[in-house]
Amino acid sequence: MGRTGSSLWIVSAVIALMVLVPLSEGNLKLKTNKGPVEVILHKNSLLQCEIANLAGISLNPKNLGILWVFSQGTERVNILMYSNGNITSQWEEAELSANAIQNGSMSLLLRNVTLKHSGEYKCEVVIPPDYKEFVMMKLEVLAQPTVTVVSRKVVEVGNGGEMFLGCHLNGYYPCESNVEWFQSSPSQSKTKLLTDLCITPPVKNPDGTCKVTAEVRFEPQKEDIGSSFGCRVTHKTFAEPYTVNAAVTLKEAEIRISKRAIVGSVTASIIISVLLLGIGIFLYMWYMYKVPPKLSDIQLPARIIHQELAEITCHVSGFRPNKIHVWWYLKTQSDAREKLIGEFKRYQMIGRFWGKNRIQEIELGNKTLVNWKHRTPNFQDNDDGTYSLSSTVEVYPDLTMDDRVEVICRVWHPTGTEEKHICLRVDGIAPKLSDIIIPHVVQHNSLVMLTCPINFFKPRPLVIKWYRNIKGEKSLLMDTEDEVTSSVGRYSHNVKEFSFPGNTYSVYSMLTFKATVQEDDGDEYFCEVDHVSLKHPEEKCIKLDVKAFPSLNPILCDPVNPRIDKELTLSCNVHSFYPKEITVQWFKDKKAIMDFETSEIIENPGNELYELTTTCTVTPTLLDLESKYRCQVNHKTLLLPKFVEYIPESLVCSPKINEITCDPVNPEIGKALTLACEIKEFYPEEIQIDWFKDNVRINENTKYGIINEELKSENGLYNKVTKLMLISSSADHQAEFRVEAYHSNLSAKPQNQCFQLFLKGAPRFSDFNIEPKIPSYGHHLSVSYRVYDLPSKDFTFEWYKGAEPVKIGVTHSDFVCTPQKTYNIESCLNFVVIAEDFGKELVFLCKDHSKNEFKKHMQLPLKAVPPEVSEIKCTPVQPKMGGNATLTCRIEHFCPVDIDVVWTQGSKTLKDQQVVEVPEMNENGLYSTITELPIVLTGDSKTYICEIRHAPSDDIVEKTFTLQI
Fold it and tell me: What percent of the chain has pLDDT over 70?
């Protein structure tokens, strides 16, 4: 029976490893014995531990842990543990009923209780994931004393003699007791306690019980004749004091006459003579006659266990005289020499007849045999005048050193020498293999630990091998005879060792690897254990069922911004699950959606995992703004369904924009007018409204005023009216006003409505017309513009390039009268396009006699032209050392004039030395220039770079020239 102080955490680690779920305190209640449990020595005892509130608690043997812990002083030991449906007991006398556990009873039965079982017991119950509780109880072992009274049968009263009464208590526990002697006299109704009492201190027996003797001395008188004497014992095992009466009778001494004295004297003389003769014969037979000893066979325990105390005894009996010499020897198979274990000598110097014995005893032992110890023999005087002794050696055997050794007990006596031999067989304790512990779910592509508990064995050397069975072929993975930690390929092995008193060990062999479906699903793993106490290796097997938890991608919505009362499609991709069987459901809030589609389950060829796509089509309403759509899956790997949710927070209703209205309907120049536009039935409320005039955003200022009015919403949708107020001018005539409504939750593209403002009495203008459509530099360009509905001929027309008026190339047609009594006219501008026209704006101005001006603008569609750069030339062509030279580069046909020239030599910029001529206009209407770099020839050949940058055309040109001297 091994004990340890490491107790609870070992089993907790086993249970946590078994279930792989966190434990928390729940409302589990246990009931147990009230007060200490008292049990009589060598009887059975039941320690109660039951679930008081079993209703509502589900007991699963695979998901339940029970631990019984024994405490005695500072010593603690796990005596019994239950996990994964298996019961592991460290005490052979401790039992737990597996059937009773199913009914909520974890009570512990102790058989043949001894004093070592006295102490505190703790029952701890763990029911993952919510329940954990324990109770404490105390066990007291009691032993009832055996009471024996010793006395003479008849005592004569009257001659002044004493009598002695003895009361012996044996085999009781606890050792606290009370012993009294009393006298009951016929003449008195009450009993009388005897005070001349001598009680020896309690002495402990080998089994832990106690014994004590209470002796009383008493001088009886004639008045005591007829009295009875009793021994009264008080002990915890007796409900009331226990009494045993002495079988002694008091009688009056007889009166002898003188004749009897004479006869007595003669008789005494004869007796003394006979006695003297007998004493002589007795002394000869007692001390002079030698009797050889008798040796019993050497006695061994039924089984000799490694590192457990074993007593080897030889009884030597019936010898005389008491002079004797006992040796113990050890002889191994590898060494035939005898090694002394210990010896004992005894010699009596003076006989009993002359007084006390003077005895010499010598105890010797060989200190080199540290496992062996010779114990002082029990020497006994026999009633027939012979002697006996029991000689014992103690050993904590080591299986590797003491197995098959020969033990010799040799005895010398004056009558001769005799010896006994015996061969020891030392056994180990075979390991007990529990089922391999694996996680509740072996997850794909995750680390998994296979734990094989190997419990309560000795000696320590142990060989652990792990195998893997792949399609019927068993292959070795690990051979860990002496290694605590080792790794082979993707497998790593770790051994955790626990030691207990008595050199008993337990080992947890843990194989760790990353499990995958394609490599490990369905494969068997074996843990094989070999030990010196086993005839054949033992093994445990586990078959892996690798699973992959399904992963759910976020629910996708098509369209991304769903619209109210418009059909939308929700889709969810479920992937990376194994095995193939899976159940898919759709819910709106808590109501199941029956109309959905799930694609065929396909296998990913890369990792043999499965995936699918499920879709659901719904038509949301405004009431669905706070609804939750859920895609839920059920799979073998899941304790609870797994799901993802989608809330249509971006649910929108696009705005409807009515046409822009003008108040008044026919506005006049210089008078106030209001443009209004109604934006209807949109959701959500956030919306941005902007006004534009000819593509230019209008900001509120002294000329313009903008008002956005919110109307009453209908059916949860929103309406707004936006108004633009202004004092019209000729610049507003025929301008395009535009309302843009940007509903950000709908799309990035705004919705708009346009309105072209025509002022009363103002002419109308056509768009600019150019020929050719794509103008080119150095060629003629014709730009024409038509004016309609002139109220009179009192109008003038002008052309501008930028701010400069154009006089040359301008022609106007004659006024043409219309049936409505208005006039039309066409004005044309002809000119040759040159580089100076790049970026300039053409303006057509129409003025009447009231000085109302109508301006129309057009940007000339001209493009920037990158320069053409010549190669660098050197003058003179072959310069001399120490002379001057000039590098020249031509830059031609570019537009606009903006150009940047940089000369460099190595990392040095030569901008201060370079010369760039002012660009001049060419016949083709583009610019050209020349750049020069004066240099002085002072060394070896050098490389010069001319870099031309033309920012308007995003063009960079580099020319390189290497000067040869």
Answer: 91
Q: Is the pLDDT of residue 941 over 80?
A: no
For 509-528, the pLDDT digits (tens) are 999 999 998 888 888 999 99
Cα–Cα distance, 414 to 325 (Å, whole number): 10
Tell which phi-psi region holds residue 456, choosing left (phi > 0), alpha (psi between -120 and 50) or beta.
left
Report helix, strand or coil for 270: helix
At position 566, the amino acid (one-letter code) is K
Pairwise CA distance, residues 233 & 243, whole Å: 6
What CA–CA distance (Å, rounded) separates 895 from 836?
Answer: 8
pLDDT tens-digit series, residues 587-609: 998 899 998 999 899 988 877 89
15 DSSP assignment? H
At residue 259, φ and ψ (nearest 5 deg) are -65, -40
* Residue found by looking up tokens 């694609």 in the block: 599
Show the tokens assigned to 191. Answer: 């009993």
Q: Which residue has the tokens 């509905």?
A: 789
User: For residue 19, what pLDDT is reported?
Assistant: 38
Please answer whether residues 743 and 655 qualify as being in contact, where contact means their C-beta atoms are separated by less than 8 angstroms: yes
- Candidates 134, 120, 117, 122; CA nearest to 36 is 120
pLDDT tens sequence across 893-908? 999 998 999 999 888 8
Query: Structure tokens of 14?
Result: 């086993």
> How far apart (Å, rounded) are the C-alpha atoms in residues 499 and 458?
10
How many other β-carbons are positioned within 10 Å of the β-carbon of residue 762?
22
pLDDT digit string (tens) for 750-765? 889 999 888 888 888 8
> What distance in Å separates the CA atoms of residue 541 and residue 756, rounded to the nearest whole number?
88
> Are 14 and 23 contacting, i.e. CB atoms less than 8 angstroms apart?
no
Tokens of residue 85, six digits: 């449906």
Closest listed residue to residue 19, CA positions, set 639, 541, 491, 524: 639
Binning pLDDT at 50, 70 and 90, where does residue 14 land? very low
pTM above 0.85, yes or no: no
Q: Is the pLDDT of residue 30 over 60?
A: yes
CA atoms within 13 A on the CB side of 93: 14
pLDDT, residue 136, reads 92
Residue for token pair 């006295």: 118
254 alpha-carbon distance from chain centroid: 97
Distance CA 37, CA 387 (A): 47
For residue 631, the model assigns a pLDDT of 95
C-alpha separations of 540 from 19, 454, 526, 528 in Å: 19, 10, 6, 7
Separation CA 708–CA 638 (nearest Å)? 55
pLDDT band of 261, cuts 50, 70, 90: low
Task: Give me 918's structure tokens.
Answer: 């002012």
Identify the residue with better confidence: 161 or 544.
544
What is the rounded distance in angstroms from the CA atom of residue 22 to the CA atom of residue 17? 10
Going across the sheet that includes 108-110, the strands are: 45-47, 108-110, 94-95
What's the rounded Cα separation, in Å, for the pair 831 and 781?
6
Query: What DSSP state is assigned to residue 173?
Result: B
Tokens of 723: 């108004």
b/e string for 622-656 if b means 16 or more Cβ within 10 A? eebeebebbbbbbbebeeeebbbebebeebbbbbe
Contact 794, 849 (CB under 8 A): yes
Q: φ and ψ at 863, to 5 degrees?
A: -110, 155
Query: What's the residue count for the chain?
Result: 965
Domains of the chain: 8-142 (2.60.40.10), 146-252 (2.60.40.10), 294-427 (2.60.40.10), 432-547 (2.60.40.10), 551-646 (2.60.40.10), 665-750 (2.60.40.10), 764-859 (2.60.40.10), 868-963 (2.60.40.10)
H helices present in 104-257, as ranges: none
Distance CA 826, CA 846 (A): 12
